[in-house]
## 1
Amino acid sequence: MASILMVVSAANSLTMRDGSEHPTGYWAEEVVVAHQTLRDAGHTVHIATPGGAKPTVDEVSLAAASAGGQDRADSFRAYLAGIDAELSAPLVLAGVDPAGYDAIVLPGGHGPMTDLYQDADLGKILVAANTAGTIIAPFCHGPADLLSATDGAGAFAFAGRRLTVFTNEEELNGGTGPNTPWFVEDVLKDKGAVVENAAAWSSHVVRDGNLISGQNPQSSKAVAQEVLKALAG
């Protein structure tokens, strides 16, 4: 079976456009659904964060309205409690050897907009993994992580690649709104990524070779399933 690295943000706040601090972290549905789907298929999933810090769940993602009902919110809480030992002692991102993994999964939440998008250790991992053809699977705000990956000349390693990401429309109408400090979709486009989004809040996955991306939390299951297909293929 495969070994999968799940890189999770260690941030617990995002500095907004007006300078205020917005509590954030990882989005529960994305970590839970991806982790559970991959683990239930028999694969090993290792969680890593910057500095090995325990990641913070965005409490908004555990509200019934955000989770898709109280039952789903409760199930997310229960699953996270079940993997609390893993979340409490994640791998230190700087010490990860990407050669030991068959896939790298990058869930979102707004946390990556604070730390992972500019994390040099993650950048090195992603460049090495991409060169090796390792599966790289970011979704929702997770594609912000790709921005950390630059070559020796500072060029974006994923320029020209097809992907999808949490859209500007979704950010403005269901994310952090017009006070958002920057829009991941816009920056990825500016860096040369070919962004292919679908209707807001619809499950949407784009695969470009070893790069498998998902648009939003609703895409979590589909991204994990596409990773399973790629591992089997």
## 2
Amino acid sequence: MTRVSDQLADLLDQHLAEADRELQVRYPGDPGTRQPVHTVYVPADRFTAETPAQWGRAARELLDRQAPTAAALAEATEMPTTLVGEVYDRVRDKLIGEPVEDLRVDFEDGYGHRPDEEEDRAAREGAAALAAAAHRPGAPPFLGIRFKSFEAPTRRRGLRTLDLVLEGLLSAGDLPAGLLLTLPKVTSVAQVAAMVDVCARLEQAHGLPAGRLRFEIQVETPQAVLGGDGTATVARMITAAAGRCTGLHYGTYDYSAALGIAAAQQSLDHPAADHAKAVMQLAAAGTGVRLSDGSTNVLPVGERDRVHAAWRLHARLVERSLRRGFYQGWDMHPGHLPTRYLATYAFFRRDLPSTAERIRAYLGRRETDVMDEPATAQALAGAVLRGLDCGAVTAEEVVEATGADRGQLEVLARRVTA
């Protein structure tokens, strides 16, 4: 009785061989590596090797002035007092030990258009500062540059800056392990394919291993979301990146402005933003490409009421992104760091008891009022690992709560195989 099914299976293997290969190549799954909770953008002319530490100090000083206690921060952000009290000291420790997780020296909008000699100098100085920053205590584990776009008016300048920065980094030693490049204002699949070629040629020119250079795509133009042929351009961009794309970053204000949305209404929680990010999320699912939300341009500066209002907004937006599966966002000011970590830590700790109980039940094959399947167990373990990576929870707390150590959770989250 099984001879027919065996023969059919052989036929199916032949018929589906190409589809199997394509699925494996296009949808390899999550890379199983740490994802930063944010990306900090600093204009190239303002960046030094001390910038990450300076941001941490500025964030702590603001916290000391405007919310010196957990109760004060809870009142300022309108978050639960108990939960804020649970994470307040952790936030302060983070601002001391690793205030910036991902840093981008910005040669694009944050820097503007300068004479070539001036940008050349900034590129060389920025490379030296990046190399030095990568070896400082509390250095960002991820760092890199955003160069000018591949649109015709800025193409040559962007390429020259990228080349100069790579040359400067290599003259100081090996490239930083967490080096990331950001390709902005992408409007066509051809630009992504061109970036792949640029990376390969730069690797060859600088004696780097093939595949060493990888990049993020900034989704900040309508053409990157919906093409003139009616297709989701961003999905085709991921394929065109040939495995070099590490992330899709939503650009709040360029995208909103391009749609004609009034300045007062431009925000990462606008319906138009939600649509673009939903398309990005679908396009990236299963590909191993990470997602990042955009930023808010409301800064926590000035009098206490203004600072507290900006913190409330930022904390709400961070939590909103986390709930929608965007675990990373942009931060444009040191004052955003306290609420970035506050909202992130609160998010991962709030659900830890129930998450841990479900993991225990799943590993122990116990029946509970929630029937978790392998996919949900994977998501549960992934959430705990994200909390570990950013400092929301400790390894000891995880073992005590779940009964599993990091290695076991990584297997459950399918980051590694058993």
## 3
Amino acid sequence: MGIELSDLERALGYEFADAGLLRRAMSHRSWIAESGDTLSNERLEFIGDAVLGWVVADLAYHHPAGWNEGTLTDVRKSVVNSSALADVAREIGLGDHILLGRGEDSAGGRDKESILSDAMEAVIGAVYLDGGPQNAFELIERVLGERLRRAPDALDRLDVKSALQEFLASEGRSAPVYTSHSAGPDHERTFTVSVSSGGVVLGSGEGRSKKAAEQQAAGVALDALNVESRGASRT
């Protein structure tokens, strides 16, 4: 298929007994439409999603901090989402190994959040079927464990856009308005977003996706508004 699966196995830290499972995990539906292959990664994605949820719940529950139910739920959300999975996929170079149709490939599909996160779940499903629950557990702990351990430090940023909207409403100010533009080729596109209220720009952000740039812009704006609020309260 023109790619070295052994490179991906090394990045995963797992060697497949059935290499066909890994190939299937890399087979996007756009590839199936243009190739002689018949099975996409969608069924593996289904089982991988379930395994991922179980493992992250287990890791969070057994964390030494003894998080309460609310924190456990937030920690799981911070790790089991398309953005986090796509980031992990980028770190291990998963995009280079995904089998895509020509149109999807030319449109920058190798760096699309949805394609990367789905493929990551499919890989987890493939490892589960190939090596059993323990190997799947160890893979997830290896690639997501550090994110999970750091999650509580960033829980207040899980939905910073909502936090900004609530802050502005509490101050009697207009709802935030996001303005964005993008630059660069499809496979390396960068989004820049500014957020304003009542025509006043409050912050800006940049990211590989519009969503990430909006979150960053909202965070910058919220930080600035909090500083402004604390300064006003001292006068």
## 4
Amino acid sequence: MQNFNNIIMSVFGGREIELPLNIKVLMNLKKEFGLDEISYSELLKKVHCDEQSQEIREFIKNEVRKILYECKYCPLHLADCHTQKVPGEGSWNSPLMLIGEAPGFEEDRLGRPFVGRAGELLTVILNKLNIDRKKVYITNVVKCRPPQNRTPLASEVKACSKILELELEFISPKVIITLGSVPLNYFKPKSSIVQSRGQWIYERGIWIMPTFHPAFILRQGGEALKRVKWQVWSDFNRAIAKVKELKPDYDFN
């Protein structure tokens, strides 16, 4: 680790610099597990396919949560509606990631993503697909509840992207299901969820399936409800088929 620090200092002439968050996590990880000589790309492989992997993933999860809990990048952490930050949850080894928009009232109260009515519906969908919720990774683009559950502002998305990028890098999902317009536009700016849902996006080596947020389903009625439920069910089935094609050995039960 000392050699790595010396290289950093020599490159920047001894000046103190703000290291990228992923490098900070890497340095702490190397120190914790005595991995001074391993490269960054080799380390990412160890996160998923090494006998030490479970310990490494748990350490990374805790490091990312520390960064989240200390985050003051945007004013949301000072909002009256915000009582605690809501980290992602689930398996850090999952090939499937579900990304929503931001926490609501129940999520803020309990400190967990998707635990309100929309979360209950999401769990039902996963159960019908014979998928244990704990075996996928579920998170939001923004980790603090916006006032009156409004759509997160672009500045809030940009600020919170620091955490989401760490999740994406260290989990390295094969498939992502984006729930709603905010995560869709994170990967494909200026997109319409109505026009884009059900259409594959391939970015960063990840297959991304946009679909409606469960809260949108709950707001529907009559024929619109039947149509939207069928569309979301179809999107989830296609995403699950893709992830099983890419990672057939992963057990979702």
